[in-house]
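Continuing the batch. This is chain 6 of the set; chains 1 through 5 are on the previous pages. Same settings as before, nothing changed between runs. Recording input and output for traceability.
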Amino acid sequence: MTDLPTRPPVLFIHGLWLHASSWAPWAEAFQAAGYQTSAPGWPGDPDTVEEARANPESIADHGIDDVVAHYAGIIAGLDTKPILVGHSFGGMIAQKLLGQDRAAAAVAIDAAQIKGVLPLPLSALRATLPVFKNPTNKHKAVSLTAEQFRFAFGNAIPEEESQALYDAWTIPAPGKPLFEAAAANFNPHSPAAVDTANELRGPLLLIMGGKDHTVPEAVTKATLKQYRHSDAVTEILEFPDRAHSLTIDHGWREVADAALAWLGKQGL
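Output for chain 6:
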């Protein structure tokens, strides 16, 4: 008779422009540490990078609420609340689900800005320009060029590595979440709102890359301030020399190990 696993399962949530399979190295590392893991895609995401590139319409027009409901449904099928590890918009989704008491803890890595976060650095505007340059992109799936990916994700790594990551993992992304986040502070019912005042939620770790163009450190620091009215554990960790590719580039293991160490400190 084998012992039942005592640790919560881990659910990885990807962000825009990366396929869920990009979490594979993380899943292996967390499994080696004793966690059961899964990395389901967003609603409409095909199973492979190639299928996603060939069928962008399947990804288009899914907004924040759609994605939250999708992962909430997955969580409802688990025996216990999972630990959520999210990158970029996946980090926002993780925070929303944690605020709804659907998770044991969350690690939000270079998380997209939630409602109430005001800084909008120029680099973030440039990184998202491929979507915002055309208002009709709200209802479409938008792809990045290799050059755009280099600025938005791969600016802190060699150009050859950025190209390799682009070739391996990038997929079209729905424009709708970006439009929703951009309008969050003007919409009293914004889907980008997070229950940051929840006192009873599980612990949250915000991880930021000091060289991130897409989610600059000012955004993550402002996100931390949004949690000032809650006594629940909320911590921040910076990797000064890392950019938005920190979950998939050659230094991913350092970030994953930091997340595992933090979970261990939380007794998870």
